[in-house]
Fold:
Amino acid sequence: MTDYPKITTYTSICVILLRELRIERGIHQAQVADWIGKSPSAWTKVEAGKSPLQFETFARVCLSFQVQPSTVMAAAERYSQLLRQHQWAVLATELSLDEDGLLRAAQDYWVTPGYRNFVPTPWAPSVLNGPLYNPDNSITLALSVRFALDKAFHEAQLVTKTSLNGPA
Structure:
């Protein structure tokens, strides 16, 4: 497992939650960009951590999803508490993509074979409801965050379907 620096920002958590929400709802990046009056490449750069998420853009994206910005911020606060329990620092300042371990982990997760083979279930709880603490002591959370925190899940996402079935 890659050793990510255990540091992130509230903004990065919000970016990750917005991308996870977009994926959950089956919406393409270009559609989000159109809703908020940005070019598709401009929104892609925000999701990739290459451009900062401005507050006005954050609010417009939330409202385009018909979600109050406060709902996303409340979820970000819950995720920040979980990260702190795992000895992560959550800052209110900007970090570069190289410095932000959570955003790097999320970017790595979204290109894994496990992510590409993932089939969302319509009855699963929204990423904005998480993290959810279950009676069996498990935690339901955004998979990109789980990728950063759970070594076994991280390793499982790197395995391709063909390697699970043995050599071709």
